[in-house]
Specification:
Endonuclease, Chain A; 10-stranded mixed beta sheet; globular; alpha/beta; 8-stranded mixed beta sheet; about 700 residues
Length: about 700
């Protein structure tokens, strides 16, 4: 075998790969085998994803471009080449998004009794009804903002829908311009009575209603033109923590300053354009490359509201009610259950998140619990996790919560509930300088007859009861004292000035030794691989970007190891270059694939690991992350089964080819019998089999 040489030919650009992932989300919206409201949900997810992509990734590239950065990415593309390719790909995807919406999804909803009434289709009765709604509910919330020498162009809110108005005042030959923001506090979809189609549900769009009656805001003026538009701003702010005395106040200040950031994208509606378009582009400093004209309503992420309003009305797939975890069926103390079982796994959202909340609530009230330590990255509004921690602190427990203030787009939310925790008496630690706290760890210290015992919960995902219903994640309860010692030491690193131990007993942690641990595990498979017994790696994650890991994966493949990668999102590894031993799959379905599972065959003595970390530079170098082993037989059997099911999915899997393109395994819908998420759900609803399941 010729010596392996790793080059940029083995790599795909990170941002183009992410756009391909969002394209796979859009493919779900094109699937005629799923109900129309579910298809609309994927339209909204696609839009929400794309908004964040502009705010962060395009923002970062624009900053590099403006700084005249002459470098290239790992795949060899310059900054300007990346921006050009991104622009082309986005235009194609957005065109397809609106084609699906206009020609397939909205007509399908209409055929099922749900209609979106557009402004040009208002009849006399609808207009009269909407006029009353406008005067009573909408008009009081609106603020017209004139733009003239005494009224400078206002700061436009990021991602809000705005209406630009050109008008002429009475007894004046001059035209004037003004802006009206569509209030986000009002419903985007306004119910309208429909006598034309009895038994159907009809909605009008809020911005259409405002545009129709916008003249009410400008007494004695003639409305010459009014057009909706929307901007997306640069929200990519890096926090230089050197010299920052108060991180909380610093982030608050940064969040305020994002309001005045540069516009990266300006969206107009295809059928509603005019002279105001050029005026807006000039005032916002936006060039043609940042202008996007869409064939329908703006801000399709807001269509989540319609999905929520019409949920459960036979227009979407039936709900998959989470299964109860058999280990927690007993009414006994959660501590007793975990102590006797020694290790219990929880597979979300197929199983309920309730045991985690139950553990915290019991800890808050248990007089034998001395202390609780927990990391929190993202939580829901009215979080039962935060409520339990507040109760524990109020009850005199020593509660220490490490809050990641720098969690992207959740900074403001995290500040609010962190202050609530402080007010309850909890010790709140606001992250670490230069690092994000991304690991998911909960430790409870309890006084028992045998002495002090530590109870540990680790997870691949956040302590968030809302996302626990839609993200696939794995939680792990254990009393393993070596693992507890490791996590206790890690908490000391995160909360104080302690250095990490020279070697962990069982875990690996970023940024200390996680990358080295992954590479050593990969290299071991290469070393143990023989023609008769090839090495085997199965790695399931959200994203694969880190070039050094990609290089070692390729080396292992060239050494004969068989490698299956299940990568939901970004994958910068291009398979099939000099070896067919690497396969890359991506699964996109009703739940967001979020768990990280790493399997290494180890010459017949397999090892299983779970982690909060993807194979990305940010996870390996810029975050506190944890990789932990799974050693109990029951959980290992379940992980075997989950991986086997996913590797045989032909229904929702897309395969990555050496060309860098993905293709669906089954576009017909005939392969529902292999749909991994449905099979996994059925698996957890049934009694988990005791027989060992072997990966094949």
């Amino acid at each position: 075998m010729s010596e392996f040489s790793f080059t940029r030919e083995h790599l795909i650009n990170r941002d183009l790969s992410w756009l391909d992932f969002n394209g796979r989300v859009l493919e779900e919206a094109s699937d005629k085998n799923i109900p129309p409201l579910d298809r609309l949900k994927f339209i909204a997810i696609f839009s929400n994803n794309l908004d964040e992509f502009f705010m962060v990734r395009v923002a970062g590239l624009r900053q590099q471009f403006d700084a005249k950065d002459k470098g290239t990415d790992a795949s060899g593309l310059s900054v300007s080449e990346q921006l050009d390719e991104i622009r082309k790909k986005i235009h194609g995807l957005v065109t397809e998004q609106y084609r699906l919406l206009n020609t397939e999804i909205l007509p399908s909803l209409n055929n099922n009794g749900l209609t979106i009434l557009r402004k040009e289709d208002y009849g006399a009765e609808e207009r009269d009804e909407l006029a009353k709604i406008f005067k009573k509910m909408i008009y009081p919330t609106l603020t017209p903002m004139a733009v003239d020498p005494s009224h400078p162009f206002p700061v436009i809110n990021n991602c809000a829908i705005e209406i630009a108005v050109r008008l002429k005042q009475q007894n004046s030959k001059k035209t004037a311009r003004a802006l009206v923001e569509v209030p986000s506090v009002l419903p985007r979809f306004i119910a309208v009575s429909s006598k034309k189609k009895p038994g159907t549900k009809t909605y009008a769009l809020l911005e259409d209603v405002i545009t129709e009656f916008v003249g009410e805001l400008f007494a004695d003026c003639e409305i010459l033109e009014s057009i909706p538009f929307r901007i997306t701003k640069d929200m990519d702010f890096a926090i230089d923590e050197e010299g920052v005395d108060d991180l909380l106040s610093h982030i608050r200040k940064e969040l305020l300053q994002t309001r005045t950031r540069q516009a990266l994208r300006l969206e107009f509606m295809k059928e509603r354009r005019g002279s105001l378009e050029t005026w807006l582009m000039d005032r916002l400093g936006v060039d043609q490359n940042s202008k996007y004209v869409v064939d329908g309503p703006l801000h399709l992420a807001n269509f989540f509201e319609l999905v929520s309003k019409e949920s459960g009305k036979k227009l979407e797939e039936e709900e998959w009610t989470p299964a109860e975890n058999n280990d927690f069926q007993s009414e006994e103390s959660v501590f007793k259950i975990i102590r006797e079982k020694e290790a219990i796994s929880l597979f979300l959202p197929f199983q309920s998140f309730e045991p985690v909340v139950r553990l915290l609530n019991e800890a808050a009230e248990d007089p034998n619990v001395l202390a609780i330590k927990q990391t929190l990255y993202r939580v829901s509004g009215n979080s039962p996790v935060v409520a339990a921690l507040e109760k524990a602190a109020e009850n005199g427990k020593q509660v220490t919560v490490i809050v990641e203030l720098k969690a992207r787009f959740d900074e403001g939310n995290n500040i609010v509930w962190a202050k609530k925790l402080e007010e309850s008496g909890a010790h709140v630690i606001y992250g670490m300088p230069g690092l994000k706290i991304h690991c998911k760890a909960l430790m409870i210290i309890r006084k028992e007859e045998s002495g002090i015992r530590r109870y540990l919960h680790l997870s691949t995902g956040n302590y968030n009861d809302k996302t626990a219903r839609i993200y696939t994640d794995i939680g792990y309860f254990t009393t393993d004292q070596e693992m507890c010692s490791d996590i206790s030491a890690l908490f000391n690193v995160m909360t104080g000035y302690s250095s990490p131990p020279s070697s962990w007993r069982k875990i690996a942690a970023a940024p200390f030794d996680l990358k080295e641990k992954f590479i050593s595990l990969i290299d071991r498979e290469a070393r143990l691989s023989t023609p008769h017994r090839p090495g085997r790696i199965i790695a399931k994650m959200n994203s694969l970007v880190e070039p050094s890991i990609i290089e070692h994966i390729y080396k292992a493949a060239h050494a004969g190891a068989k490698i299956d990668l299940i990568v939901r999102g970004i994958c910068c590894l291009k398979p099939g270059i000099g070896t067919n031993n690497i396969t890359v799959r991506s699964i996109v379905d009703r739940y967001l694939e979020h768990s990280r599972i790493y399997y290494f065959e180890n010459g017949g003595e397999p090892e299983y690991y779970l982690s909060s970390a993807d194979w990305m530079p940010r996870n390996l170098y810029k975050r506190i992350e944890v990789l932990f082993p799974v050693e109990d037989a029951k959980t290992r059997k379940i992980l075997d089964e989950i991986l086997r099911i996913q590797l045989h999915d032909k229904r929702k899997t897309r395969e990555l080819h050496p060309s860098g393109k993905y293709s669906a395994c089954d576009k017909s819908g005939a392969g529902d019998s292999t749909r991994s998420q449905k099979i996994s759900y059925d698996f957890f609803k049934a009694v988990i089999p005791k027989e060992k399941v072997l990966i094949s």
